[in-house]
UniProtKB/TrEMBL annotation:
Pfam family, one: LRR_8
GO cellular component, one term: cytoplasm
UniProt keyword annotation of ATP-binding present: no
Source taxonomy: Eukaryota, Metazoa, Ecdysozoa, Arthropoda, Hexapoda
Record keyword Nucleus present: no
Full protein name: Leucine-rich repeat-containing protein 57
SUPFAM superfamilies: L domain-like
Keywords of this entry: Leucine-rich repeat, Repeat
InterPro entries: Leu-rich_rpt (IPR001611), Leu-rich_rpt_typical-subtyp (IPR003591), LRR_dom_sf (IPR032675), LRR_domain-containing (IPR050216)
Organism: Drosophila gunungcola (fruit fly)
Amino acid sequence: MGNKQIKQHLETAQKTGILKISLQRLQEFPPQLKAYPNVLKTLDLSENRFERVPDELGNLTLLKHLNLSGNRLVELNEVVGELAKLEVLLLMDNLLTKLPKTLANCSHLKTVNLSNNQLKEFPTMLCGLKQLDVLDLSRNRITEVPSEVGGLYVTELNLNQNQISSLAEDVANCPKLKTLRLEENCLQAVAFTPRILKDSKICNLAVDGNLFNSKQFTDLDGYDVYMERYTAVRKKMF
């Protein structure tokens, strides 16, 4: 896609509100976007070679869908917090080591995908976002799930393939959490306390590939209560 094609895309996007410039090996944010009118609702810049996001992104305050996956981002510009209408944020397959606290301002976020990055800490700034439904943190380097997790409103939390050895009991407080994926981590069976198994709303707990066998898991205090929830949901599905 040469400059002429990008120009055509930008002109069309002014009418449609949708701009897709992916798979172009771009190392720099398209300069035309820096002074672009605030009309975009969907911006797809996936599968390029960006290492950073410019401040001008914060001017696109109507954005609902932002796809920056498959780039080389090491950190995310805090201006993302100015995208108050953002509902979908796709950042998988980057090199992110941390996230800006300003993401807490994106109160309309529904889906956040951060799979396959270099995050070492759980992004607690996403706790408290009441619209957030799905959070994918799989394939990172997170070592613990902190107590703030109890403020997450998601129905699904994916933490597969991290390095988690500590799970805060507060996960039982998540008001909507139904599916918790913790496969291929470093957890002992005792991490799943009676409170998590008995008092949470979790009805789909994926725990294969940790430091315990299935018998150790099924022998846990509260496992029967968890299985009642699991079975009840299965009956509703069929």
